[in-house]
Structures are given as structure tokens and as C-alpha cells.
Amino acid sequence: MNHTRLAIGAALALSLTLSACSSDDDENAAKPAAKATGSHTVRTAMGDVKVKDHPERVVVLDGAELDSAVTLGVRPVGAASVPSYLPTSETSGIKKVGGAAGAPDLKKIAGLKPDLILGTEAANGKRYKQLSALAPTVLTGNAGGSGGSGGSGGSAWKEDFLVHASALGEQSRAEQVAAQYKSRVAAVIKAIGGKSRAARTDVNFVRFVAGSDIHVYGKQTPLGSILSDVGVGGHGASFEVGAEQVGRADADAIFTSTYGNPGRAQVTEATTSAQWRGIRAVRDNRVYTVDDELWGQGAGYTAAKQILAEIESDLSR
Question: Residue 151's CB: how many other CB atoms inside 10 A?
Fold first, then answer.
């Protein structure tokens, strides 16, 4: 009888022990794996910067940085501005931190308690010490919008993207994005008739700017680098012309946008002139109006994806 009681007691004890272990295992399995809390060094335009491996409260000061974050699946807590071409599903809830005359509002940034700030040296280099006092600040060269020269030519935006990815701890995803871009470019080239036909097709981007001469963008710009990747012909260097010289933008196809008030951007003067009517693209009805915020100011893989879609649609006709 005593042996029976001892056996029962031992069985109960073993059952309770196994149950407890099983419960602990279930709890551990239910808990998501915590991200690494270490740090790494990022090489920037202002020198090496130490950042968290996986920053969670990111503030971006320029459109290219926001494009990079969205492309990499990161939703910043704050941004100086939000370009309209970015999906609202990816930008909703982002707080505006832009101040007067395009300068960031340092108080608003501080209120968001960022653990990383992304920007460009050209726009925010003078505020670097102030920004660095708020959070680790990674500034890149000026890839800018399509009007910028880029730190090392029109493809500087691709180099900046890799710096952004390093700062955000998303290097692996960045490699996937770059590979997808190359595949998309190859598909566009095929759709417009192949490399030979692309090379025989001169394409220009003509931007009417309020209060300024007309801008004709070459390949040493972010937008121009995309056209170059597709392999179409066109100007290597950007230049500006008055309405009376718009014929210098002659090409087989022209994409055009307007920044600011059309009445102050020489749109009517240029597009009603004999020089404009003599342009091959105008004679052949191959002038395509595009969104200025995307084509004239966008810089990044999300912008590039949309631009490629429009190039394919228009040039494959």
C-alpha cells in the first residue's frame, strides 16, 4: 500500500514538472524574437557615425531619405515634408517637422525623441551639431531631386540609398531592392523595343520653372540616370534656355512638367513658338506631361519604380 502511494506521488510530481516545462516553452514560443540592441558605425558625408542596429524612431529631413525609408519598409516618426507620389498607406501618421524657409524645426524634432536622423549635407550640414545633439545624424551627399547634380553624378541617389539602408539596419533588403530595379529596367528596355531601338531614341525631360529659365535635364541627374539605365539617347549635361531657344530641347520624345505658376514659367511663350513646333517630339505627338513632384523632385527607388512605369507606357506606344 505504501509502495502504491509512493508511485502515485512520484507520477504526480513528474506530471506537474512536465506541465510547468511545457508552459514555459509555450510562453517563450509566443514571445517575438527581440531585435538586436547593439550598434554599428555608418560612414557618412560628415564622418563616421555610431547608430543603433535597428533604430525605431527615425526622422528624415529630405525627400530622398523618406523615399529610402518607405522603400525599405520603415515608417519614420517625423519628416520635413512628404512627397505626394509616396503611397499614403506608407506615410500616414508621420509628423511634419519642417520649419520656415525649408529649415527643420529642431523643437519638433526633439519632441519626437528620435534615435536616428537622416538628411543631406547640402541642406543640413550647417545644422549638423544641433541635429547630432538630438540623435545620431547621418547626412549624405546631395542626390537631391532631378535638378541636383548629385555627389558623384546622377547615380549618387543609389549610393545614398545604401548609406540610408546601413543606418536603418536594412542592408539585406537594400540588395533585394537594387536587384529588383535592374530586373525592372531590363523589362522596360524589352518593352520599348530592345537596346538598339532605345539607343536610337533621343529623350529629354523639359521642366518649366516659375521665375526661371526652362530646364532641360541631362543624364547627370537622378532622373537622367534612370533614362541612362534604360539606354535612351539624350543630353549628357543639363542646361537652361529661354522660351526663344526651346528648340535646343529637340528629341524624339519629351517628358515635360511645370514647377510653380505656369504663367511665370514661360509655358505659353515656349509651347506656342515656331521653335517648339519644329521639335521632332512635338511633330510626332510624343510629348508627355508628367507630375513635377515625381519627375522633377523625386529621388529614390520608389520614385524610380513609378517613373519606369511611365517610361514603359509612353515609349512603347
Answer: 19
